[in-house]
Amino acid sequence: xxxxxxxEYESSIIEFAKLRMVKRxxxxxxxxxxxxxxxxxxxxxxxxxxxxxxxxxxxxxLVYLYTVQKHRFVFIFYALxxxxxxxxxxxxxxxxxxxxxxxxxxxxxxxxxxxxxxRFGLFVLSLNGIGMGLFVFFSLNTHIEVxxxxxxxxxxGAYAEILLAVIIISTILYEFIRFQEIALTNVREVNxxxxxxxxxxxxKNNENITLLKExxxxxxxxxxxxxxxxxxxxxxKNEPHxxxxxxxxxxxxxxxxxxxxxxxxxxxxxxxxxxxYTLDLCTELNRIYGQDLRIDYKVDSExxxxxxxxxxPVGLIxxxxxxxxxxxxxxxxxxxxxxxxxxxxxxxxFELSYTDDGIGIQDNLKKGFGSxxxxxxxEQLNGERKLLTTPKGVSYSFKxxxx
Length: 403
Prior knowledge:
By secondary structure, this protein is an alpha+beta fold. The chain has helices spanning 7-39, 45-68, 72-92, 99-116, 118-146, 152-237, 240-265, 274-289, 308-329, 363-366, 369-380; strands at residues 294-301, 335-344, 349-356, 384-388, 394-401. The chain has 2 domains: 2-196, no CATH class; 295-403, Heat Shock Protein 90 (2-Layer Sandwich), CATH 3.30.565.10. Helices cover 72% and strands 10% of the residues. It has a 5-stranded mixed β-sheet, with helices on one face. Helix 7 (240-265) packs antiparallel against helix 8.
């Protein structure tokens, strides 16, 4: 059923409907003009010639249609030849009324629109409009002066032509309405099938999301197990300098575990909301390093979120910055402010600004492992880091790229 949405298949349906329509029109032409040819055999010679030629043309066209199975030329031929003959009759046949010819002009315009499109239809319509205007302004009065009453045979011929024109117009409208109904039925069937497929896809997608959330949950649990093992290991050593290194490693693992925790807790597993993650990370680090500190964390972001590839290095960078501030920036104070701002530059680039109001960065920290790790993580994000000069505290500016 989905093939109905294919433009190629839809075009073939339309072309088939047009071929069937023009075959039926040709059958009507051949039948009516054949009957009129027989009826006018011994009466009006000129009328008989016209009907006979029309019968031969329609019969030839019918044979052509069944042989070649192509319709476009036939629509053009009927629209142009019918229009030309009707206009010539209006100007040169002055002894008969021409309301039938006006019907043929309307019919030929219909055929032009349906058979060959809007532009050709407008061309045929314009041709007939000009012909009608010329007849009304230049031939109508002369026509009225010489008009003679119809004979019975002429009345029969006129009635047959009018009836034929009305039948053909009705046939065209019927075929058009029928095709629209078929198309509407097909669309409904396709929509029903699509709705069913969408339901299945949605169910499968929900299953995949559930499985992926379960994966993130298990990764987070595994990371927590690693953290617990490291804490058990450090408790056995009971050496302060070793404990410090273990604690830093634990915090880095914890920052990654928090990412997976966020992913299985939220609906969107493609991106992590950066503000909530950053605040939770700062709160956890404050619990570890700054239990006596009252730090006001202000996090704002122009980014809706970051994907997993990008958030991991960003989270580790924030972990190092906040850890350094809490461990070394507030030695002489119990209160402070830390500001973290994410600015969206474009679809590929964003900025991370970090500021605290502590005592400032110390020389020995510039060469520490945390600083080197920040540099490596910045390079991983194809970015740049700047240490800004401030009267108090420390301020960083990062230009980073989405991975």
